[in-house]
Design brief:
five-stranded parallel sheet, 2 domains, four-stranded parallel sheet, Rossmann fold, about 40% helix, about 290 residues, elongated
């Protein structure tokens, strides 16, 4: 029997996660009143061959009874019923944006602003967040990426990486990414833009990569950057950080930054460390779009 309690901040993707678990064979129960959770636990203690995987959705919609969650979990512990808690979270800014896009009312906001409802909910959900077996930050996740993580944990039974790293290339002329935790400037390197045959290419092309990395300063910068990031990662994990955005910028975000971001991504990916990682190139196509306008 595998019993998963799916919870988290409203708008962080709980309903989506429940649907994904249902698709891989979990029997899903959503929004069960908290006082009934121990009753469900008693039913699960009865040997059954029909249901061996169950996911229970709990969130702030349970109202005042939600304050009894710690008592309910204690009763499950007394039964010696094994359970896991999947907590879905996202940054306040992302949650506000999602609510505005869907035009839904936050369950705790009432006549107040959405961000006030989120603040109240975050305080009330802290008891579950602290007890979470799995903490997934969906702030920068696409639906397919969340599905991949759900499959990794609950289908493939792999260890989930609580820290998720995004290596992001960008162009300074389009602005520094607002969500960047670490920003590195590679404009000191020779610019392939001024080489006529390289100008239409990007850092994803072999010719540009070879041109950029043929410079001794690029190799030295990369070595020091990788060494520093490797030092920082375990410290961020110990701090409880769940999202790390490493931004590498050049003038237009097409050549040098893309090349160095790719190199950093490949180096960190080989480490197979205690983190997940992906790469994004924010501005790689913007020069071409701007010139057509």
């Amino acid at each position: 029997m595998r019993f998963v309690i799916v919870t988290g901040m409203s708008g962080a993707g709980k309903s989506t996660a429940l649907k994904m678990l249902e698709d891989v064979g979990y029997f899903c129960v959503d929004n069960l009143p908290v006082p009934l959770v121990p009753k469900l636990g008693e039913l699960l203690m009865v040997p059954s061959t029909e249901i061996n995987k169950i996911a229970l959705g709990l969130d702030i919609r349970s109202g005042q009874s939600f304050q009894e969650i710690e008592k309910a979990l204690t009763e499950l512990d007394k039964m010696k019923l094994s359970y896991e808690i999947l907590f879905l979270d996202a940054s306040n800014d992302v949650l506000v944006k999602r609510y505005k896009e869907t035009r839904r009312a936050h369950p705790l906001a009432g006549p107040n602003r959405v961000d006030q409802g989120i603040a109240r909910e975050r305080k009330e959900m802290e008891v579950l967040r602290k007890r979470a077996s799995w903490l997934v930050d969906t702030s920068r996740m696409l639906t397919r990426e969340l599905k991949k993580e759900i499959n990794s944990i609950f289908v493939e039974n792999k260890d989930y990486k609580n820290l998720y790293i995004t290596v992001l290339s960008f162009g300074f002329k389009y602005g520094i990414p607002g969500d960047a935790d670490l920003v590195f400037d590679v404009r000191f390197l020779p610019n392939p833009y001024y080489i006529e045959e390289l100008r239409p290419m990007s850092g994803n092309d072999r010719e540009v990569r070879e041109y950029v990395m043929s410079n001794d300063k690029a190799e030295e910068f990369l070595d020091k950057l990788v060494d520093m990031i490797r030092f920082l990662i375990p410290n961020y994990i110990a701090e409880g950080k769940t999202q790390l955005v490493i931004a590498v910028g050049c003038t237009g975000g097409k050549h040098r930054s893309v090349t160095l971001a790719n190199e950093l991504y490949e180096a960190l990916q080989k480490d197979e460390g205690d983190y997940g990682i992906k790469i994004e190139h924010r501005d790689i196509e913007k020069d071409a779009i701007t010139k057509k306008m």
